């Protein structure tokens, strides 16, 4: 299966630090972020999971459920969470999938076949740092893959969620480096007459580029 933007996120059942879950049931009615990690007890992953826990309120405000994944056993996850909490002064309250057999990793094409050092003792590839943003219809709206050596920017993940949710609610797109509260772009499919009603005070830079105040 090739996953692209617009694909329905594949369902799966898995053991996690919060018990067994059915993924579609877990995210029902919410947006979701599924993000993978190369391995437990690794430095970059420890900072990433701590950051996600620290920003729990940011995700809750946006109706986003988060779920992590690492290619280790459940017992390792449970011990690792203690380190994450201690190092980052947080409480990890979201599930982390125990994917030692790489079933979910393979389903979502999260395995690293380029970096030959990114393997376990049996030579099986670990996961890379994949991010999937999934909407309330269980449709994949964003896919980002980072190398194992580079931690993710969760400011960017939240920025994209804001952009997607705003675009779903209003007929807009967002420009480069846009942040919540900045001016937005009137969708090309909106006529000037419609724009005058929807976005009073919109301004035209080019016929195809029209800015309007943020509807937030």
What's the end-to-end separation, in Å? Answer: 37 Å
Total strand count, please?
11
Q: What is the rounded Rg?
A: 19 Å
> Strand content of the residues, in percent?
15-25%
Average pLDDT: 92
Indicate the overall shape.
elongated
Q: Regions with pLDDT < 50 over 5+ consecutive residues?
A: none
What is the fold named in CATH at topology level of the largest domain?
Glutaredoxin
The secondary-structure class comes to alpha+beta
Helix content: 25-40%
Spatial strand sequence of the major β-sheet: 5-4-3-6-7
Quick one: CATH class of the largest domain? Alpha Beta
What oligomeric state do the depicted chains represent?
A: single chain
Give the SSE string. Answer: EEHEHHEHEHEEHEEHEE
How large is the count of helical segments?
A: 7
Number of domains: 2
Give the CATH superfamily of the largest domain. Answer: Glutaredoxin
Largest pleated sheet: 5 strands, mixed
The CATH architecture of the largest domain comes to: 3-Layer(aba) Sandwich
Question: Would you write up a description of this structure?
Answer:
This protein is of the alpha+beta class. It has helices at 23-27, 43-54, 56-61, 74-88, 103-107, 154-169, 192-198; strands at residues 13-16, 19-22, 31-37, 64-70, 96-98, 129-134, 140-146, 172-173, 184-186, 203-206, 209-212. A five-stranded mixed β-sheet has the order 5-4-3-6-7. The protein has a four-stranded antiparallel β-sheet with strand order 8-9-11-10. A two-stranded antiparallel ribbon has the order 1-2. The radius of gyration is 19 Å and the shape is elongated. The protein starts with 12 loop residues before the first strand and ends with a strand. The mean pLDDT is 92. Residues 3-166 form the Thioredoxin domain.
